[in-house]
Design a protein that fits this description.
Elements lengths: L3 E10 L8 E9 L3 E5 L6 H8 L7 E6 L2 E2 H11 E4 L12 H11 L4 H14 L15 H15 L3 E5 L7 H16 L3 E5 L3 H4 L5 E6 L2 E6 L1 H6 L26
Parallel strand pairs: 3-8, 3-9, 6-7, 7-8
Antiparallel strand pairs: 1-2, 1-4, 4-5, 9-10
Helix pairs in contact: 3-4, 3-5, 4-5
The protein binds adenosine-5'-triphosphate (ATP) and magnesium ion (MG).
């Protein structure tokens, strides 16, 4: 039987200033699935992720992690779920890349040798190994994102939530992150990816969710959802391909 990792029941976050927040959102996230969550700016993706991690209190509703109320499961959750935040700067801790990536596995109490091997592997997988002694604050935006991904790879968690993992990445960067995602999927990890950049990762997704104004408007098979895509959600069907450079503009029909 497929187990539920997160179970979200009628979750709401109402902001006094009238921002959409999250409204009566119910959702199950299953172990081992690759779930893609998309939606326009302000649709509630980041807010939902922060609530899943227990960083934002709901106004109403409940979140369970492995069948336990979130507040009781928070230690297990921190151990098992790695996260890449949309703001890569917020995640930098160490003075060197190596130290930064080592922070997570050290914190989890892994033996020194294991930490070393996992840091090495994570920095290699994200193409940062040559910069291991470099100060993270001086990295470029894309490199910082790679570093955040390396950080959660090194922790070896069972589930990963990635908020805009492709933002600022160049082509090799996208390929490296996708390679890591594919490998993690093969290893049976649960992956929740919040992104506008559907075209990059759609092929790896088991399920697609479209958020709009804090509500789930679509959830299910990506192909079927895109076939009936409502333009009101502000999501573009990425299956269109361009033949010519001059076609590559969003300003013509
Ligand atoms: N602390 C807060 N106070 C008031 N409104 C907030 C707060 N946090 C989030 N919001 C609002 O909640 C809505 C959802 O924001 P969220 O960051 O989740 O959007 P998003 O889907 O991640 O957008 P993007 O694609 O731009 O990353 C927005 O309207 C935002 O302004
Ligand atoms: Mg966001």
């Amino acid at each position: 039987m497929v187990k539920e990792l997160f179970s979200v029941h009628k979750l709401s976050k109402i902001f006094p200033n009238g921002n959409p927040g999250i409204r009566e959102l119910s959702l199950s996230i299953f172990e081992g699935e690759c779930l893609l969550i998309t939606g326009s700016n302000g649709s509630g993706k980041t807010l939902l992720m922060r609530m899943l991690l227990g960083l934002v209190e709901p106004t109403e509703g409940e979140i369970q992690f492995r069948g336990m109320p979130l507040y009781r499961a928070i230690d297990t959750l921190r151990r098992e779920v790695g996260m890449v935040f949309q703001d890569a700067d917020a995640q930098i801790i160490g003075e060197t890349l190596e130290e930064d990536v080592a922070f997570g596995p050290k914190n989890l109490g892994f033996p020194q040798e294991t930490v070393k091997t996992q840091v090495q592997a994570a920095l290699t997988a994200t193409g940062l190994i040559e910069k291991r002694q470099f100060p993270p604050r001086r990295l470029s935006g894309g490199e910082k994102r790679r570093l955040a991904v390396a950080g959660i790879l090194a922790m070896g968690g069972k589930a990963l939530i990635l908020d805009e993992p492709f933002a600022n990445l160049d082509w090799p960067g996208v390929v490296q992150v996708l390679d890591s995602i594919r490998r993690l999927k093969t290893e049976g990890k649960t992956l929740v990816i919040l992104t506008h950049e559907l075209e990059k990762v759609l092929a790896l997704a088991d399920r697609l969710i479209i958020l709009h104004k804090g509500m789930i408007r679509e959830a299910g098979d990506p192909q079927a959802i895109l076939d009936r895509l409502d333009p009101a959600y502000g999501v573009r069907d990425p299956r269109r391909t361009y033949a010519q450079v001059r076609d590559c503009t969003w300003l013509t029909a």
